[in-house]
Amino acid sequence: VINSDASAAEAHRDGPFPREGECNIDDPFFNRYKRSIVKDKNIGPGTLKGVHIPTPKNLDEFVVDREAALVLGKALFWDMQVGSDGVQACASCHYSAGADPRTQGQVSAGGKTFNDQVVALQELSASTFPLNKPRDVTDRGFGLLSSVDDVVGSQGVVPGVFNKSPEGHGETTGVRRVTQRNTPSVINSVLYHRNFWDGRAEAIFNGVNHSGLRDRKALLPRLVGGNTVTLVQVRIPDASLASLAVAPIVDTVEMSFEGRTTSDIGRSLMKRTPLARQLVDPTDSVLGQYSAAPAQGLHPDITYEKLIKQAFVANWWAARTDLYRDEHGFSQIERNFSLFFGLAIREYLATLVSDDAKIDQHFDGLAKGQPGLLNEAEQRGAKVFEQNACQDCHNGPEFAGSVYRTVVTGFENPKVSPSFQHPEEVERMTTSDCGVRIYDQGFYNIGVRPFDEDLGLGAMDDYGNPLSAARILTSRPQDIKSKELLSDSYPNLGEKGLVKPFRIGEPTAVLGTFKIPSLRNVALTAPYFHTGGYATLEQVVQFYNRGGDYRDYISEDGISQLSMIDLGVGKLGLTEREIADLVSFLETFTDERVVNQEAPFDHPEIFVPHGVGPSADGPVQTFVHIPAVGAAGGKPITLFSPQQTVNPALIPEPLGAKPTNGIAITR
Ligand code: HEC
Ligand code: HEC
Fold first, then answer.
1. Going by C-beta distance under 8 Å and a sequence separation of 6 or more, which residues neighbour residue 217?
2. How confident is the model at residue 656 (pLDDT cuts 50, 70, 90)?
């Protein structure tokens, strides 16, 4: 939060500012110090209408028909044919307010003593939350009553080995795997510069995987002049959602059996009718005109191949097989499926922007001279949000960090001093041990868990480079393996001459840091944090109120979590009423179109795996049926709602024993 120049902080140390290690973050002095700096810099809540939605500037080199790409993207996102098991779609984990409200089979192991089968099938109970139970919710000083390192994630596929059949299936055993982080909402994710909790989905899409410039070997065949095919490097900026999308489809926890590649997926889908076994509402805002309703899927004469050819530039798919086949025998259109999949999904997710919440209507009205819409409790909550550093991190109309406005485009705001309107990816902050460290703007450690359980942005990539831009900038160039990373620009105020330039070897604060998630629709997307360890907004606010749970953690090799935590996170001393007001304010970030699944949040039918139920032949997979919804919306979405006690009777009945569309039931 704090863009302090190292020298400014040094100067403070000669005054009343304590020396390194002597810092008491609960001291009101720090709060004053912090706020005086931050006030200048961050813009507070506002309307999302009119906020820039990034579009890759070289999109024309790839996409000829964005409308067709959108149809393709929405179909692919919801289509159960995409997963190795013929069940698992992107939407299986992102079907409710873009996130996952399921309560059974959602726990993944953190610790060493863990029985996969038992925990994976466990039904979550309300009393499980929060996963860390403080002795006193208002004061972390009394320590934790219990601490659980498991994560509430999302169930993916059962482990299996891909058998190269065109059906995309293989042998499977066991129960569904579970992701090791909680599933964030896909709604508004287009506003982030980098995606995933740890930012590993790169802003620059290389057409092949999530690694952007890091993977120097990512090449795609391009047809040149009608009869030559050359392998080229693809660089598509401002496309982190495209980078992201190509990760889950081949992930062996989320959607794939071992050994399945994006080309295998392309081959298996190419001749298929999109959504062949799911109903599509004829009034669906994107797919409706192609719906085969009352039959399932899109019109039988539409195939994925046709949509790809309509949406994408021919150079990427038209090579005859006598001109091009890769070493595994894949044709150009199959080999380039990752490019099509990523860009099509990006096109769809870019439409999922929720800019019509009460908070938007409030600010839109004020701008037109109308009275505000917030009631008294919400107005008081807005003050609590402003005065307790919430808005310094959950910044601006996005209520998020690492967004385009702050990292890429910069912004104009008369209330913010011009020097801070510059875009910035890397900056300095004062950490809770009074150190001054460099970090990636928008990524923080707030003390949810010991940092060495999940390093977040502090981890290395698959090629031996740090994920963090701050660490790339402070590393010796010879230590960066993917050299192209060094020529990428990392906007920062040092570069603009506003603070001291960053030095090689300068300390960083990136271990255990995670992207600041948007608070838009946050009332709909429990459970919270990267661990999914908090079930209600009250629990989250209480966490902040006591200054976090693992602030004082020191790792075995002596690294203190304090040195990663922003000075802005400390005991807040909120009253019960302030906590309730703050929660009421957070609830004004809910867009009712998301609740009612109105366009653009309408969607095809989907059957989502949810736990296991009894049958004559032993336990079988049970499914939740999510009906198709048209543009005008439907029933309100289901929210995450674990029951108070674990009661076997609460395990959902197998829905009509099995889905009506003939999906194989797996154990
Ligand atoms: C098995 C459940 C599961 C499936 C299937 C799945 N996701 Fe996710 N998704 C997750 C989890 C868990 C995360 C967080 C992972 C992380 O950050 O490391 C995530 C993160 C995301 C995000 C990041 C949002 C943000 O704030 O950074 C987007 C966007 C997304 N998924 C889209 C997709 C798409 C597109 C697909 C299909 C290609 C997909 N997901 C399939 C569970 C799933
Ligand atoms: C120093 C930056 C910072 C400050 C200050 C801050 N947050 Fe956060 N917030 C984060 C980060 C980072 C996460 C994700 C942490 C994680 O999962 O490890 C988060 C997560 C959340 C979540 C969970 C969202 C989700 O989808 O899981 C809520 C709710 C939230 N913050 C509300 C608040 C409120 C209310 C305040 C003020 C009392 C506040 N935050 C202050 C950085 C901050």
1. none
2. very low
